[in-house]
# Entry
Amino acid sequence: MKEYNVAVIGIGMVGKKMVEILYQRNFPLKNLKVLATREREEEIAGKILKIEKIKENSFNEIDIAFFAGTEGEKGASSLFGWEAVKKGCIVIDNGADFRMDEKVPLIIPEVNPHHLKKHQGFIANPNCSTIQMVMAIYPLDKEFCLKRVIVSTYQAVSGTGRKAVEELKKQTESFVKGEKIKSEVYPHQIFGNLIPEIGSLSDEFPGYFTEEVKMIKETRKILDNYDLKISATCVRVPVFNGHSECITCEFEKEVHVKKVREILSNFHGIKVMDRPEESYYPTPLFATEKDEVFIGRIRKNPAIENAIDMWVVSDNIRKGAALNTIQIAEKMIEMSLL
# Structure
């Protein structure tokens, strides 16, 4: 098998997870270069790795560059991404900067790998909450024809990054000790609370925050259905890792719960956990460090004709970011596009 010179850009929670997964999945590495804003050494996946400072010439002789990205901020890909492409590198970007760019395919390998054939050297990874939702709705769309999607998310603090995880830990400790709780990362205390604000308010969709807009626009692009009706409400919850979603899907055709379970159970990357009478359904704690998207609480919606409700959980740092990005490269190798 051909081996590749690979670079990982960014060494936060997602970047570290990318490195771990590259080793876990025995990705065909020839050399691995880890790039960040400053030089140092870091222990990742039981190995001491030298972190190099990113420069324009960092991408010389690199075959694949995985940009870890930071949600809500301009990522390194906006500075170095297309320059790396000019040097013959394939860029796969977890950041949000180019997801809606017409030149850039937005890929979930299990859903729309055919879009990779149009790539111009730069591929985008969808938002974490979008990935797990589309994994759940895509196979059902193929069978019953989606008409409308309404989703409410319960998103872990790991989606904001390491500082948010530390803030939840500190607030928990302060509560136990009876100390004053301080908030720096979020506009409100996250411990013991829910915050219905992820991102900034959108001009394009008045009253919606940008995380909600991402779910709407990215889903339409991935599914090649720009008329699909979608509404999203995204909420930050005091959970360390793992995003959960309550999804209502309305279809053109009559839908049966038994058939829905069968379709989802047979779709690669999904695991159905749907025995509520036994309290058997997915939770974010269960999904952490697992690759699959987990689905339970599948039931007919009694208020909408031809509609079902379901509960969808996934590790947002793993499948929602690092793993999906690497799976894109694996799919490109499989399709002889690398």
Observations:
- The CA atoms of residues 219 and 249 lie 13 Å apart.
- The first helix runs from residue 13 to 24.
